[in-house]
UniProtKB/TrEMBL annotation:
GO molecular function, one term: pyruvate, phosphate dikinase activity
Pfam families in the record: PEP-utilizers, PEP-utilizers_C, PPDK_N
Organism of this sequence: Desulfotalea psychrophila (strain LSv54 / DSM 12343)
Catalytic activity: pyruvate + phosphate + ATP = phosphoenolpyruvate + AMP + diphosphate + H(+)
Residue ranges that the Swiss-Prot or TrEMBL entry lists as coiled coil: 659-686
InterPro entries tied to this protein: ATP_grasp_subdomain_1, PEP-util_enz_mobile_dom, PEP_util_AS, PEP_util_C, PEP_util_CS, Phosphohistidine_dom_sf, PPDK_AMP/ATP-bd, Pyruvate_phosphate_dikinase
Cofactor: Mg(2+)
Lineage: Bacteria, Pseudomonadati, Thermodesulfobacteriota, Desulfobulbia, Desulfobulbales
Protein name: Pyruvate, phosphate dikinase
Broad enzyme group: transferase
Amino acid sequence: SQCIYEFGPKKTDGDSSQKDLLGGKGANLAEMAKLGLPVPPGFTISTECCNDYFELGGNLPDILDAQIFAAMANVESQMGMGFGDFENPLLVSCRSGARSSMPGMMETILNVGLCSTTIPGLIKKTGNEWFVYDAYRRLIMMYSDVVMEKAEELKPKDGMGIRLSLEMMMNNLKNDKGYANDTDISIEDMKNLCERFKKKISEDLGLDFPDDPREQLMGSIGAVFKSWNGRRAVAYRRIEHIPNSWGTAVNVQSMVFGNMGDTSATGVAFTRDPATGQNSFYGEWLVNAQGEDVVAGIRTPNPLNLDTKNSQNGHLSSLEEMMPELYTQLFDIRNLLEDHYQDMQDIEFTIQEGRLYMLQCRIGKRTATAALNMAMDMLDEGRIDEKTMLCRLEPKILDDLLHPIVDPEAEKHAAVVAEGLPAGPGGAYGQIVFTSEDAVRWAKADKKVILVREETNPEDIEGMRAAIAVLTARGGMTSHAALVARGWGKCCIVGAGVLKINLETKELRVGTRVFKEGDLFTLNGTKGTVYEGQLKMKDATENPKFKRFMEIADSHRTLRVRANADTPEDAKIAREFGAEGVGLFRTEHMFYGTDSDRPLFLLRKMILSKTVAERKEALAELFPFVKEEIGKTLAIMDGMPVTMRLLDPPLHEFVPQLVENQQEIADALRIDLEEVIKRSEQLKESNPMMGHRGVRLGITYPEIIEMQVLSIFEAAAELIQAGKTPQPEIMVPVTCNEKELDFARKIVDRCYEQTLEKYGLESIGYMYGTMIEIPRAALIAEKMAEHAQFFSFGTNDLTQMTFGFSRDDVGALMNDYLDNGILVADPFETLDQEAVGSLITTAVDGGRRARPDIKLGICGEHGGDPASVEFCHRAGLTYVSCSPYRVPIARLAAAQAAI
Ligand code: ADP
Ligand code: MG
Ligand code: MG
C-alpha cells in the first residue's frame, strides 16, 4: 500500500479526512496546501509505516528508502534546491504527528541536512553565517538527544542526559560572556560551541554526530517513529485512553527559517481566544527565532496584535505594529481557516525574510468556558447547526463549567504573591510543591497540591495531572503548561516572572519573601493572580449561555435523566441541575451520621434485635423518622418519579464498635454488653457483598419491608391530601428469583390497603419494580417482569457479579489489567458493553416480552459516563440515573447519543 503522501503548492495527495493514516498534522498540512496556503512542500510517511517499524523490531521497511528519496526529489525540484547539495542545500524537518494531538509528547527534529559539506553553501547563499550556525547547533542538540540517546539508546557516560549537558555548556558560555539572549551569541562563539558540542557527543555517547544528510534523515525518521513508544507518550496515552495501535506519522518538510534576522520570526496563534472563547485573533510570536522558542518559554513572546497585549507583554511590540502587511495576510488566513473548518484553529507560522509560511493548523484546545462560548457564538453566526454545536462540547467538560471560582469578595482582601498569565481558568487552592514526583506523591496522600515549576516540560505530565493547579514562572499562553492544563480543564497560571524557585532547598522567593514546600496558595486562573493562603471558593454562577445550551441539548434527546439522591438536599441539587426524577433513593443513607445521632442508634438497635418483638419495637421508633425523610424528598420532587430502594444496608458497617455505643444498645434492648458483642459477631460475614442483604433481609425479617413501605405510602398519602402529586416507585434490591418479588409484593399490597383505609383515599399512584444487579435476574428477566413494573439496572453490582471482581478490592489489580491491555477501561467506570451490556440487552428483551410498557433505567455510577449513556440510549432504556453533579453531563451525552 501507499506509504508516502506528498503535500505542497504543486502536488498534494492527502486531505484533512485522512487523520488516521496521515496523523492530524500531516492531514491538515495537506488540507492547507490544497486551500492554496503557503505551506513549505514535503511529504508524510503514514501511521501504517509506524506499525511496520515496530513489527520489524525497530527497522524501516526496505522498500521505504526508495520511496522516500523519490518523494524527496519532488520536493527538491519544487524548492529548486538539493538535499545534501553543496551549493544550494535543502534542509528539512522530521515532525511527528499522531491522529489526535499529543502536545509535546513526541519528537520533532529541525534543520536536518546540515553538515560540513552543506554548511559553506548555505552560508554563501544566505550570507548569514550566524543563522547557519544557530541552525546547526539546534540540529546537534535535538539530534543527539532524540536520535542518538533516546532512539539508538546510547547511554551518556556521565549519567546526565546529553541534552542537559549541551544546554549547560551553552548556558555557561552565555554566563561567561555576559550574553543575555541566545541571539546575542557571537558568530565565533556559536561556531566554537558547535565544535565543542560534537566533541562532547563523541566522548559521552561513544559515537560521532553524523556528518551525512541521508544518515541524519533516516535516523530522524526512525527516531520519530520510536518516540511513539517513549515513556512520556505512553503515559499520556494511558491518561487520555488513546490506543497504542494508532501509531504516529512522520512529516518530512522543507525548512523555512524564522531565525534569519530581524525580518524573520516564528509564532503560534488561535483563531479565537482559547481561554475565553472571545471572537478575536489571539497569538504570540518572537522575532529572529525558530520552532519551539515560543512554546518553550525561552523569551517572553510578543503579542500578536493590539487585542492580545496584556499586563505581561504590554511593553513588547505586536506583529500588527511591526509587520502590518504580514499581519494582514495572516489575519486573512485566519478568516479563511475559520470559514473552512468552521471551528477554532490553533496555527503555527514562520516568517522568513518577510515571507509568511504556514506550518500547522489543528482544532485548538480550549477551556470549557471557551468551548461553550465559541459553540454558541458559531451557532448564532450561522456557521454550524444545533447538532454540530452540541457535539462541540465533550460532555465531561461540563464538569469544568460547574467548577468553583475564587470568591471575589475574599480576593479583595487577599495578599497577592504574583501575577501571571491566565492560562487555565477557575480557582483552586492547595499546598505548593516543586517537582512532578512530589506532586504525585502528595496527591496520593490525599493532599491538594499546586505544582510550581520554572516552566513545565512533557516530563511533568504526571505531576500536572495529580496537581489541583499548575503555576509556572516562565512561558506564554501557548506554552506546554498552558496547553496541557487547558486540555484538562485545570486551573493554571504561567509566566509569573517574579517567582524565583530553588529546587535544592525547595523554596520559592518573591522579592524578599520566602515560601516553603507545603505552604498554601490560592490561584485565580481566570485572572492570573496568585494569592497567599487559602481563599474561599464559590460555585460558578448560573450562566445564561449554559442554560440555553442545555435547553438545546434537552430538545434533542429522548433518554430521560434522573439523579441518584439519598437525602432531600441531594434531591434539591439534582432538580437544579435538571434531573427529571430520582432514579435511586438509598433509604439506608439517611442513617449515616455520627454515633450520637438518634436514627443511627435506632437502626443499630433494630439490626441487633433478636426477637420479632424487639425488632418491631425498634422499627416502630424508626418509622416516623423514615417517613419524614421520604416525605421531604417526594415533596421536593413533586410531580416527578422517585425510586425508593428498600433497605440494603451492609449490616457489619452499622454495628457499633465503641464500648459506650454497645452499652447504649444493650441498655435499650435490656440485654447485657456480652450479648450485644455476641450478636455483633454473629452478623459478621466472610462475603458481605454476597451476604444477607437486600431483599434477603426482608425475607428473613418481613417487618423491615413493612415499616419502609408503610413510610412510603403514608408520606405519599399526606402529600396527596396536601394537594401534591407524589410519584413513588418502590424498588426491591438484590433479587435473583421472581418468587422474592412475589413475596415482597404481598407485603406491599397489604400496606397499600391499610394506608388507603387510614387516609380515606381511593388510590395512591405508585409503581413496584426491582433492581437487576445479579446476572441470574437478568437472564430470567421475563419472569421477573411478570411481577415488576420496572427494572433498574444496578450496574455497579451487576459488573461486580459478572466479572467476579470485588468492587472494594479490585483497585489492587486494576492497574495491572490496564497496563497489560487485558482490559481497555475500568469496567466500574465505563460499562463493559460486551458482557454486562449483553446481560442488560437480554433483560431488556425479556422484560419487554412480559410487559411491553416496562420502564427501564440504570442507576449505577455508569449513568454519568458518556460512553455508557450512549449505550443506554441504543439499548432503548427509558432513563439513566447518576449523581446530581453529573446530571448535565448525562443530559448532553444523551443528546449526542440521539444525534
Ligand atoms: P509539535 O508537534 O511538538 O508542535 P512540530 O512538528 O509542530 O512539533 O514542530 C516543532 C516546532 O518546529 C514548531 O514550532 C514548528 O512550527 C517548527 N517547525 C517544524 N517544521 C518546520 C519547518 N519545516 N520549518 C520551520 N519550522 C518548522
Ligand atoms: Mg514539540
Ligand atoms: Mg506543532
